[in-house]
Amino acid sequence: MPASVAWSSQSSIIRLPQVHRHSLRLVALGDSLVYGYGDPEGGGWVERLRRQWMSPGSPGHVVYNLGVRGNRVVQVRDRLEHEFRHRGELRNRVPDVIILSVGVNDCARIQSPQGRNYTDFEQFQTVINSLLDSAQNLCPVLFVGMVPVDEMKMPFQDCLYYNHENQYLYKEATRLACLERNIPYLDIFEHWLKQGETWWKSRLSVDGLHPNTMGYQSLLHDVLNWEPIIQMDRSHHSQLI
Q1: Consecutive H or E run containing 223
Q2: How far apart are CA 177 and CA 197, in angstroms?
Q3: Does residue 16 sit in helix, strand or coil?
Q4: Whether the predicted pLDDT of 120 surpasses 60
Q5: Could you give the domains of the chain?
Q6: First and final CA of the chain: distance in angstroms?
Q7: How far is CA 97 from CA 24, 43, 132, 137, 143, in A?
Q8: What pLDDT, on a 0 to 100 scale, did the predictor assign at position 87?
Q9: How much is the pTM?
Q10: Strand 141-144 to strand 97-101: parallel, antiparallel, or no bridges (unpaired)?
C-alpha cells in the first residue's frame, strides 16, 4: 500500500512510519453528509473535526472538506484522484488518509416509492468496488456510512423517495466491499437506529434526509470515538514523543 500511513487489520492500528514527524493531511470526499448541509452553526461533522484539530493541544491534523451535495458514487469516483493530487500543502505532499462517505443518493427511488433507484444496484456495486480500489491505491482509506432517513418526510424535493430498505441494501454492499479490503467502515445507519426512533429522528433536519446541528454533533462524537481515529491519533502522537 503506497502511503505514509498504513492500515493493519491484524492490530487495528493505522501505523505511521518513524520517519514522518508531522501532522496528518486528510481528505474527506463524499456527498452532503461530508459537505455538512443542515448544520448552519458548525458546518457539519467534517468542519467541526477540522476546527477541533486546529485547537491548542490537538493533534494538528489538516482536514480538507471535499463534499458535494447530491453526489453519487460515480461522481465521487470520477473526481477522486484529481482532488487527491491537488490537496498537498507542504513540499507537494499528498494526503495521508482518505475518508469516504457516499451512497445515500444512489439508493433513492425516483418519482415514486416504487420507481427505479437513482443508481441501479448492480451498477452501484461495480462502482463502489472501483472507488474503493482506486482510493486504496492512493493511501489508507476510512469509510463513514449514511444516517437513516425519516421515511414519513419523503419525497425529498418532490421527486426522490428514500427508505430504510434500500438504505440497508446499499450500505451493506458498501460495508462488505470495505470488509473485503480491510477498510474500516463506521456503520452510522445501524448505530443510530439502535438508539431508538425518538433519538435519531430528533437529529434530522425538517427535510427528513440531512442531519441537523444536533445530528452533526452526534456524528462528530461517533467519528472521534471510532477506534481507527483513536488509534490514528495515538500512533501519530507516539511518533512525536
Answers
A1: helix 213-224
A2: 28
A3: coil
A4: yes
A5: 25-235 (3.40.50.1110)
A6: 26
A7: 8, 21, 13, 11, 11
A8: 66
A9: 0.87
A10: parallel
